[in-house]
Amino acid sequence: MKNLSLIFLLFCVSELHAQNYVISGYVREASSGEALIGATVVNTENPSIGQAANVYGYYSFELPKGVYTLRASYVGYQTKTVEINLNSNQSINFDLKEESTNLEEVVVSARRKDENVSSVKMSTENLKIEKIKSIPALFGEVDVIKSIQLLPGVSSAGEGTTGMFVRGGSSDQNLILLDEATVYNASHLLGFFSVFNPDAIKNVEIYKGGIPARYGGRISSILDIQMREGNNKQYQASGGIGSISSRFTVEGPIVKDESSFLVSGRRTYADVFLGLSNNEDIRDNTLYFYDLNAKMNYKLSEKDKIYASGYFGRDKLGFQDLFGFDWGNATFSARWNHLFNEKLFLNTTALFSDFNYGFDVAVPGFEYTWTSGLKEYNLKLDFDYFLNNQNTIKFGVNSIYHIFSPVDIVSDNTALDSLDVAKDYAFENAIYFSNQQDFGEKLSIEYGLRYSSFARIGRDTITLYEEGQPYRPENEIGTEAYGSGELIKHYHGLEPRIGIRYLINSRNSIKVSYNRMRQYLQVATNATAGFPTDRWIPADSYIKPIIGDQVAAGYFKNLNENAWELSVETYYKWLQNVVDFLPGEDILLNDKIENAVASGKAWAYGAEFLIRKNVGKTTGWLGYTLSRTQRQIDGVANGNPYLARYDKTHDISLVVSHALTDRLQLSGNWVYNTGAAVSFPEGRYVIDGKSVPYYNDNVRNTSRMPDYHRMDLSLNWKLKSKRDWFDQELNFSLYNVYNRKNAFSIEFREVNNGDPNFNEDIDGPITSTRPESVKTALFGIIPSITYNFKIN
Questions:
Q1: Which helix (H) or strand (E) holds 589?
Q2: Which structural domain range is residue 525 located in?
Q3: Does an H or E element contain 273, and which?
Q4: How far is Cα 83 from Cα 561, in angstroms, rounded to an integer?
Q5: What is the pLDDT of residues 674-715, one digit of tens each?
Q6: 198 and 289 assigned to the same domain
Q7: Where in the sequence is the signal peptide annotated (predicted)?
Q8: Which of 152, 305, 387, 544 has the smallest number of CB atoms closer than 10 Å to its CB?
Q9: CA angle, 746 as apex, 740 and 777 as ends, to 5°?
Q10: Cβ(695)–Cβ(146) under 8 Å?
Q11: 100 or 240: whose pLDDT is higher?
């Protein structure tokens, strides 16, 4: 009732402003009809009065009766003005044409020119897809997530991998959304490529802190990715042929100016080259992945529009007929936009997400099939209410139904017994409210509150333990059975959010933010890179949800007519109920996960520095992060604080693009980071004549991998075409230009001092040996070439 009363009050308050008239509408790209997210429409006489378009390109603000000139603008597009005589509410749409820039005016930002200073947002980055495509990439595969890893506060899981850690959070603490649907595993080829085909992507935004109240479910970051809608003006086709994959996209109007579609596919063809081998063993292997993105939209009326989009991707790995491994994601989004009036906008979304993986092993005497996965059904209602020029209100509700399928093993007469770990079921619900309120020109505050709850439900049987004792087999006292749909455990709580921006002047601002997040799902894994076999586990009677709090403060400055951006941000994050593995425990086959893990606390803090140039022949950024991440968990490292596996003290990224001519663009990046914290053996001991490494369970992650650094270069060459309707270009890339042998793993072994052919696995006593570390590096210099085309 309180929430309904609040909404009613907002409507009543809006009537107090009846002397003003509302100007509203959409801002779109003229050539394709795509919504221009964040485009601004302002009153030219007083540019502080206006509004930025939402994710669907919709804007709304109000002015008193009179004659005005409105200006619509978006970086990289021609500004458009229109004069109006305002004597009633008016709907005005803007179609902006892309700007034809010369070399001195090249623009790479997807945001308004002064947003770095003027917006309440902090700890947020938006990357233009054209910029992402210009960054050199492994095997020439343009990658959204690897581009995100080049930003301050975001680090990679390892050489070439797409796993990412944001401000001291683990990889499962990032919520990755594709058209609002959750992507649980965003990697191809065991993490070396991400699942996002750049040809199908329109907008990429990451929130590292100051997370708005409409988002929830993860405590470290939100990576919000929107797919393109498709051209509603004309048919187009585009694609590319690269070193390891090819892409093809087709789009066009279903009904011109009313609806459109887009279909985009990508596939690798390593398996094609394997089939050409003279070696039969190699020829029978399998190695490839594929993606398919599809989207359509239809304008039902001036106030109603529907969208449907989907993604399906899969990886296939196989060794002859002996072993097969495949995994993949499927997502579906159905959305309905409805405009109640000029001020109230509703987006209703139904979502489905499915992640699953499986093994097939056909080794004689050891044959089995293993399947695992999870599904999510999600319904959301998100309202945007433009109360007045000083208040933009967002509120909504969200309900998710989770189904977890941990392990199902089917085996006949082999060394491995059949096993079916019971499915887990849960409901996750939330309601939120937020308001961005301007107090004059200098002070702006975005405040909000989210209430979330999580209900773990049956059917299931729960093991009971002695009260006050560790959750170990020796402390079991019985079981308790729950029927289908019966409540097993319920968690809930408030998640306050606030962000404050104080504008010192038009080029300088100070910002602070605080957010609390609750995460009811987490991954149980010994790896850091985010492998497909990672097991997602829900909060239950013994594993509590993670609660994360973060405070951040920053100084933001723009120079030279907003051509340069400078920022410094500091943050401190503290987490409750973080789980880690107990020494020597297994998780994949464990039906009582509480036996294998223990919970405790974690904290992370750091400073991020960024200098970025957005316009001119040379563009790019330099980012530096200084950070520390620690944990303290009973039963791990003797209960003492220890470094997280992904702790990296220093992280530097330099990204530069230079337009040599109208047709040639040279790009490069250089990265450096401190080696990850790891546990190395402290010695060795002998069992049955074999040397075995000794790890001290009383400490964890007291050593470091070698420092990592690498440089990549690429050259993009726009080829001349005799036909206006056909564009083509070549991209040449060099990954790891100076052939740095970065360590992917380090193995420790004993070698005989006198015998170079010593084998540590032979029987018998070991005498006169010395330890040796062996570094494994994945990649040397990797050249690649990609041919891209577009048919207009």
A1: none
A2: 226-674+706-737+780-791
A3: helix 270-274
A4: 27
A5: 998 888 887 777 777 677 777 787 888 888 989 999 999 999
A6: no
A7: 1-18
A8: 544
A9: 30
A10: no
A11: 240
